[in-house]
Amino acid sequence: xxxxxxxxxxxxxxxxxxxxxxxxxxxxxxxxxxxxxxxxxxxxxxxxxxxxxxxxxxxxxxxxxxxxxxxxxxxxxxxxxxxxxxxxxxxxxxxxxxxxxxxxxxxxxxxxxxxxxxxxxxxxxxxxxxxxxxxxxxxxxxxxxxxxxxxxxxxxxxxxxxxxxxxxxxxxxxxxxxxxxxxxxxxxxxxxxxxxxxxxxxxxxxxxxxxxxxxxxxxxxxxxxxxxxxxxxxxxxxxxxxxxxxxxxxxxxxxxxxxxxxxxxxxxxxxxxxxxxxxxxxxxxxxxxxxxxxxxxxxxxxxxxxxxxxxxxxxxxxxxxxxxxxxxxxxxxxxxxxxxxxxxxxxxxxxxxxxxxxxxxxxxxxxxxxxxxxxxxxxxxxxxxxxxxxxxxxxxxxxxxxxxxxxxxxxxxxxxxxxxxxxxxxxxxxxxxxxxxxxxxxxxxxxxxxxxxxxxxxxxxxxxxxxxxxxxxxxxxxxxxxxxxxxxxxxxxxxxxxxxxxxxxxxxxxxxxxxxxxxxxxxxxxxxxxxxxxxxxxxxxxxxxxxxxxxxxxxxxxxxxxxxxxxxxxxxxxxxxxxxxxxxxx
Amino acid sequence: xxxxxxxxxxxxxxxxxxxxxxxxxxxxxxxxxxxxxxxxxxxxxxxxxxxxxxxxxxxxxxxxxxxxxxxxxxxxxxxxxxxxxxxxxxxxxxxxxxxxxxxxxxxxxxxxxxxxxxxxxxxxxxxxxxxxxxxxxxxxxxxx
Lengths: 586, 144
What we know:
The complex is a heterodimer.
Chain A: H1 2-63, H2 66-70, H3 72-86, E1 90-97, E2 102-106, H4 120-126, E3 130-132, E4 145-153, E5 156-164, H5 166-174, E6 183-188, H6 202-213, E7 236-238, E8 244-250, E9 258-266, E10 271-278, H7 279-282, H8 284-371, H9 374-377, H10 382-410, E11 418-420, H11 422-439, E12 442-447, E13 455-457, H12 459-476, E14 483-491, E15 495-502, H13 509-512, H14 532-542, E16 546-552, E17 556-564, H15 574-581
Parallel strand pairs in A: 12-14
Antiparallel strand pairs in A: 1-2, 1-5, 3-4, 4-5, 6-10, 7-8, 8-9, 9-10, 11-13, 14-15, 15-17, 16-17
Chain B: E1 5-9, H1 13-25, E2 29-33, H2 36-45, E3 51-55, H3 63-73, E4 78-83, H4 88-96, E5 101-104, H5 109-143
Parallel strand pairs in B: 1-2, 1-3, 3-4, 4-5
């Protein structure tokens, strides 16, 4: 049974696992691809944003003479125009000379004449034409970054700078939020956050920057293959067409959880845009599908197990029943064999005994004859002798009856089957039983169906059955009260039935079950062999018919016998039957 | 009635002998035979056997075979079968072969006597008819 369960479950499990795996692979790569595209698009957006600001500044720097920028009024006019154009992203503007002194300033902070000579961004900016700084606090004490362009005029160098509103920039990045845990942030080469992520991610920044820039983030290097770090063994790298790097790594903060990191470089490799999302969130659909698959698998398994138990239980039951039937059949066969050999034995004995009994009866008859002689007439004991002779005769007749019954039980009747008209057969047997019925004060009625179909049966056997049933019926009726035996025939559906009903004493329920058992009799010892009905049963069974009995005590007993109708059995005619009857019945 | 000649055929000697005594006592002439063959032989030798009482089951030639022979050789002789079987079938077989009637062993003397007398009557009837037919034949011939 466990094998059945195993075999039934195997394909289910295989399908579930293989499909889930395939779906997972496909779905994951789809999700990652989508995320990569989103990230790539935002990278472009951010780059565009930065470059636009820078370009604006450069255009402004190139079209106006340097003197204009020293005029704070002019600057604030410029700032106002930029703010209109860029929606308030540009916070302030300023002109710084090569010593780091801010010559002119326009903006909300009081930063006129501020000295940036030592500021990191200033030194960096002075080394190149255009510069976009990292985010820093600066003099104003607020996170911001600076876009600066260098102007060369009058043999000196100046920096035209503007500050980009950190919050507005942050919003650009924050817009990339997908699902519940999807978030984006920017880090620089030193691992400092350039935007403010919603969750605490400081511990991972080092590793992330390593992944983006390689082992030495300070050096500018193109993206390399996975570095050897703490998650090298737990990450999965995804080769992608876009200039982004995607990994799925276990989240060290939450065991069992893994997170997707999608990284791309920004601002000529100075910054990195990192998108992070919990794998569970990103692949939510897949997890749901997996759960459904698991549920289906479990329910399926359960029903398979249930069915396996049910089916095997049923099969076992059926086998048991078949076994029992077979056993019963065997018993019956053995019983039949026993009966047959018993019958042969009985026949032998009966026949051997019959002759001596006949001789004894004859001899006693002879004694009786001799007693008639005159010389014995006067003998004293003659009456006693007569009584004794009568007794011998009676007992001899009893022996005769027993042996006859035994012989009829064992007898091999002519089993040849032919088409028989039950009505004729009943008529015949009733004629035979007529005398006996009369002595027993029993009337025999016949209710015979017209156009009764023929049955395929052995006439001599059927005759025996009928005779037996009629004799039983007559025996069941109290001879003093008298009674009736009714024999009826009916055409059934594919069979022909006859019923022998009497108005006798009836059979109690306990006895009714056993009436067909061999050697079961309720008659006094010496009166019945208990074989009659069992013989009838055997004969009817052999013919493919059915015999049943119902009885109520005090009301009478009815035996029902149905026999299969002959295939082309029309209503039989007297002529066909005359042959069988053998003519000379007197 | 005293002129009925009966032949008893049975392999049981004492049965035949006793039966013979009893029938003789009842003024019947009795011929005894102990096998089918002997019965046929005696039937040829003895003149005027009216009725044969024949046991069905005998060693050697059994009752049915003997019956067939008797019917063939002596069609006028009536046969009463004695059977140990209470079978309708063996009786029917005997009747089919032309037996007059059958009796079951052990049989009642009165029954037997009755049947024997009936058989004798039937035989006489037959013989009369034959005699009449012969007479008619002679008369017809004369008339020619």
